[in-house]
């Protein structure tokens, strides 16, 4: 089974505010863009991924991610993350109503294409499934199989909310790159330890990160 991924990217100027202790205001937009670029590039290289749609209103992010091969969907609902994901999923299914769709975080700079394929292949066994983040609090991937609605519930405690919605929690080992999203300096150090993509590595090299 091959999936269409929907990846949300918020306006870069407002992205990654929790990295303030690690990256200055002028650096964070570029870092957020690098995360998204490395995430999209790795996703497109995964054998289980048919295509990637990025939902964003940020013109720069749209141009850069389209250059990598992603389709760009404008966030027309302007109703927050979950509304944007539901809208993007409906948009990409307009031509292929039964196609499997997955929502993937944009801040997975260490993402490995084969690890993503393992997760998606496991998710294919269930109508809806999700992968918890490295902290076991949030969610990095939510899937909806053929003919299933996505029903995204990202945000605070999304692991519990996705489980309560009926999605199956995937309990896989050796898929750390798919679980390691980056919200804080601690998260960034963990991603760097796994090995990030080239764009994130280039921006991170400009930062003074303790322990690196």
Which features would summarize this protein structure in a list?
36% helix, Spore Coat Polysaccharide Biosynthesis Protein SpsA, Chain A, 7 strands, 8 helices, alpha/beta, globular, 212 residues
For the largest beta-sheet, the strand count, sense and barrel status come to: 7 strands, mixed
- With strands numbered from the N-terminus, the spatial order across the biggest sheet is 3-2-1-4-6-5-7
CATH class: Alpha Beta
Shape, per Cα inertia axes = globular
Unreliable spans are: none
Number of strands: 7
Number of DSSP helical runs? 8
Q: Mind telling me which CATH architecture this is?
A: Alpha-Beta Complex
Distance linking N and C termini? 39 Å
The helix content, as a percent range, equals 25-40%
So, the CATH homologous superfamily?
A: Spore Coat Polysaccharide Biosynthesis Protein SpsA, Chain A
Cα radius of gyration in angstroms: 16 Å
**Which structural class is indicated by helix and strand composition?**
alpha/beta
Supply the number of structural domains: 1
Summarize the helix and strand pattern as letters.
Answer: EHEHEHEHEEHEHHH
Looking at CATH, which topology would you report? Answer: Spore Coat Polysaccharide Biosynthesis Protein SpsA, Chain A
Description:
It is a single chain. By secondary structure, the protein is of the alpha/beta class. It has a single domain (3-204), classed as Spore Coat Polysaccharide Biosynthesis Protein SpsA, Chain A. The chain has helices at 28-44, 59-67, 81-92, 113-123, 158-164, 176-179, 185-194, 198-204; strands at residues 3-8, 49-55, 71-73, 101-104, 128-132, 139-144, 168-169. The chain is globular and about 45 Å long. The chain starts with a strand and ends in an 8-residue tail after the last helix.
């Amino acid at each position: 089974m091959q999936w269409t991924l929907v990846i949300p990217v918020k306006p870069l100027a407002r992205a990654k505010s929790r990295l303030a202790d690690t990256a200055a205001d002028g650096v964070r937009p570029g870092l957020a863009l690098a995360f998204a670029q490395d995430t999209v590039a790795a996703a497109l290289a995964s054998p289980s991924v048919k295509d990637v749609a990025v939902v964003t209103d940020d013109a720069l992010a749209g141009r850069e991610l389209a250059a990598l091969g992603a389709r760009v969907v404008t966030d027309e609902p302007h109703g927050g993350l979950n509304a944007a994901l539901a809208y993007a999923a409906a948009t990409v299914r307009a031509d292929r109503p039964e196609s499997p769709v997955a929502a993937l975080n944009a801040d997975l700079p260490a993402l490995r294409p084969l690890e993503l394929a393992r997760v998606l292949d496991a998710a294919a066994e269930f109508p809806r499934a999700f992968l918890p983040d490295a902290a076991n609090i949030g969610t990095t991937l939510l899937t909806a199989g053929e003919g299933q609605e996505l029903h995204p519930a990202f945000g605070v405690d999304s692991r519990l909310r996705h489980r309560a919605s009926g999605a199956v929690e995937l309990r896989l080992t050796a898929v750390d790159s798919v679980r390691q999203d980056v919200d804080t300096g601690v998260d960034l150090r963990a991603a760097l330890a796994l090995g990030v993509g080239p764009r994130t590595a280039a921006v991170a090299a400009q930062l003074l990160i303790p322990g690196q």
